[in-house]
Design goal:
The chain has about 350 residues and is of the alpha/beta class. The protein has 13 helices and 8 strands. The chain has an 8-stranded mixed sheet, sandwiched between helices. Strand 5, helix 4 and strand 6 form a beta-alpha-beta unit. Helix 3 crosses helix 4 and helix 6 crosses helix 10.
Length: about 350
């Protein structure tokens, strides 16, 4: 009887300790926009099918007059204002091509409501809802930068019938995607900072520890989440030329780091339902195409893996920029080149 009681006591103690550990690692509740104590709402927003709201902005000609509509998906630690394919472009460029770009805050970023059930597939539903609410038509173009490129891969998988064309700009790669030769992915993985390798292992294998890992003080968390990302010399030059808007920077993670940065990491480096390398041509229409733009000096996204993806998917139009880092799309002439290539079939 004593042995049984002792076993029960030990089990109960273990449950209490495990519960305490789990609860101590839970992220705080997000500060929701428009609610008491939360950030104020300043942007136009659309209501999605599940009741959440997405904040957005428009660049170019009015969408009701636009010949071409492009939905832009921002990167990690960015928001709707960070439209790298529109930087330095004059209004007359948009008028010449009849282009309207709709950029939006991804869930949990900026002024868009968090999505506690966010997945790669749910993001594609958000894209569809945004397009339908703004009357962008049955088909539209999709552009994604860095981590936003993964939403483009998801859209090519789940909603290819809605895409007139797509472009991925320095899209982040998941080292665990099926299809990479083991030696190639391992070599690329181990070129990262040690803290980034550990952070990605955590989000891939034990995602519920993501918030704790990136906020604890015993070991360094993700360098990218902490704003210490590895960048090239070109990246630093380009970023120094971009006006720093304090108000916009403050908006990026104003609802909390977990619902923006950390959930991004969990989805980006977690277990996917598919591998991009197993996709067949999602836009076989001769008037549409899928492009990847990549710098060969990108310190965040391995060019070796991007090249392999492009070689594996013969229907990809691959553009590699010599000497370019992760932020090459901010360079003079690059936004125009990216948009013109995306719309080439219909503007030539």
């Amino acid at each position: 009887m004593r042995i049984r009681i002792r076993k029960v006591a030990v089990l109960l103690f273990a449950v209490i300790v495990a519960t305490w550990i789990y609860q101590s690692h839970l992220p705080p509740s997000p500060r929701l926009c428009g609610f008491p104590g939360g950030p104020r709402i300043t942007a136009p927003r659309v209501k999605l099918r599940d009741g959440r709201y997405l904040a957005y902005k428009e660049i170019g000609v009015p969408r009701e007059n636009a010949k071409h509509k492009i939905i832009f998906v921002h990167g990690f630690g960015n928001a709707r204002h960070d439209v790298v394919i529109a930087y330095r472009l004059p209004q007359k460029f948009f008028e010449e091509l009849g282009v309207c770009i709709v950029s939006f805050d991804r869930p949990g970023y900026g002024e868009s409501d968090p999505d506690p059930n966010r997945t790669l597939k749910s993001m594609t539903r958000d894209i569809e809802d945004l397009a339908d609410q703004l009357n962008l038509g049955d088909k539209f173009y999709l552009a994604g930068f860095s981590m936003g490129g993964q939403t483009v891969w998801g859209s090519l998988k789940y909603i290819p019938h809605r895409l007139a064309g797509a472009v991925l700009i320095a899209p982040v790669v998941n080292y665990w995607w099926d299809g990479f030769p083991a030696n190639l992915s391992e070599e690329a993985f181990h070129k990262q900072f040690p803290e980034d390798k550990w952070a990605q292992r955590v989000v891939h294998y034990i995602p519920w520890l993501t918030y704790w890992w990136n906020t604890q003080k015993f070991f360094p968390g993700s360098s990218v989440a902490a704003g210490r990302a590895a960048l090239s010399a070109q990246d630093y030059r380009l970023l120094s030329s971009v006006p720093y808007i304090a108000e916009h920077r403050a908006q990026v993670i104003q609802q909390g780091m977990y619902e923006s940065l950390h959930r991004d990491m969990i989805i980006g480096f977690g277990k996917w339902d598919f591998s991009p390398m197993n996709l067949s041509n999602p836009i076989p229409d001769k008037n549409g195409a899928v492009h990847i733009w990549q710098g060969d000096d990108d310190a965040l996204v391995p060019v070796t893996l991007q090249r392999y993806i492009a070689q594996k998917l013969e229907w990809i139009q691959y553009h590699e920029i010599p000497g370019a880092g992760h932020m090459f799309s901010l360079a003079n002439g690059m936004p125009e080149a990216i948009i013109r290539s995306l719309l080439h079939a219909t503007t030539s």
